[in-house]
Amino acid sequence: MLKAWATFLLALAGIYIIDQNIKAIFLAGWRWESPCISLTLVFNKGVAFSMFAFLGPYLKWIQLGLLAGVLGYIIHGKYLQRHSLPLGILFGAGISNIADRFMHGGVVDYVHWHCGFDFAVFNFADVMIDTAVAWLLIESFFFKKK
Asked: Would you place residue 42 in the very low, low, confident or very high pLDDT band (cuts 50, 70, 90)?
């Protein structure tokens, strides 16, 4: 179990540090434009596609509570032993985005895809959340515990 906790905490810390350092570059003023992708600073006050922005300052507390509840669930259900790496990635990214809400009033987003269609603005943590969820689904459905 110690190995699972170490993997979880190292993945969490690694993703958090990488994401916050990338965001610091954009907070310092760096920008880049191309015909398909714009790398520019945006503060997202809501969740995906700015949904629930009307919750304002309560959103960060709701998300923090949800993350704590999920952590309790995975510890109680002993899921950490089997899924420590993707869960560490998921929690590191989630904590990084929630920390943005406390530090900057919204999530620091910076990747805007606009080649052929406009897509939501997102960040590294969002990509890591999607990756971790896909990883967990694949492990759960295709690699069942024996």
From this structure: very high
pLDDT in tens, 83-130: 999 999 999 999 999 999 999 999 999 999 888 877 789 999 999 999
Domain residues for the domain of 9 are 2-142
Residue 33 backbone dihedrals phi, psi, to 5 degrees = -125, 145
CA distance 4 to 6: 5
Task: Tell me, letter by letter, the H, E, C secondary structure of 5-66.
Answer: HHHHHHHHHHHHHHHHHHHHHHHCCCCEECCCEEEEEEEECCCHHHCCHHHCCHHHHHHHHH
The model's pTM: 0.90
Distance CA 20, CA 26 (A): 10
In contact, 118 and 94? CB cutoff 8 Å: no
Tell me if 87 sits within 8 A of 71, measured CB to CB: no
Answer yes or no: 19 catalytic.
no
Choosing from 19, 100, 109, 130, the catalytic residue is: 109
Q: How many domains does the chain have?
A: 1
